[in-house]
Amino acid sequence: MHPNADNLITTRFDTVIYDLDGTLIDSARDMCVAVSRVLADHGLPPISDDDARHFMGEGSKITMRRAFAKAGRTLDEDEASAVTREFVRYYEADPVRYTTAFDGVPEVVARFDRLGLRQGVCTNKFERPARMILADLKLMPPIADVAGADTFTVRKPDPGHILQLVARMGGRPDRAVMIGDSLHDVGAAHAAGLPAVLVSWGYTARPARELGAETVIDRFDALPQALGALAAGRP
Fold this sequence. Notes:
The protein has 235 residues and is of the alpha/beta class.
C-alpha cells in the first residue's frame, strides 16, 4: 500500500469495525458440525456447509430455526431457545477445529494496527465463542474488542450494536467504517452513519454488489486500497 494511501486512511478513519463470519473467517464447517449434532439429537438429518452459510448471520437462534425448518420442524420460542443452548454447548466446546481466517486477513489487520487504527468485531455470533476464535487465530490482538449478539441489548441490523461498540472503543462514528458481507451489515452501518465495505465471498444469499454498500472487494488485501479510495471521495 502506498504511503499516501496510509495517510488518506488515517486522515478519514480511526476505527474499523468488522463482521466476523463470512468476512474475517470461514466458520461454516464448524457451525455445520455443531448444528448437525443438535439435529441428530432430535432424530433429524444434518445440514450441509452451504446450508450453514445461508442460515448464519442473524444470530444462533435464527440459524437453529432455519436448520429445523429445513427438516420440516417449526419451533416455538421455548423450543428455539432450548435447541440454541444445545448448539452453543456443542459449538463452544470446539469452535476452531476447521475455522480459518480468509486469505489476507492477518496481514491487513496487522497493517491497520501499525497505522494506529482501532479495530473491533461486531457480530451476531455470541461474544464468548467470537473471542475464542479470534484469540485462537491470533487476530485478537490486534483486534481490540468484540460486540456479540449477547453483548448489548440490541444487535445488527440495529445501528446501536455498532455505535455502542465504537463508543466503548473510544472511537467516533463519523471516523468509523463497517466491513461486512451481508444486508444487515450495510443496514446497520448506514443507520449508524458509517460507510460500508462488503466482501464478495461472504455468507449471503444475495450477491454483495446488490446490497447497497459503498464498495465491494474481491480479496481481503484489497481493503486498504478500498478505504483509501473512500477517504479520497471515490467509490
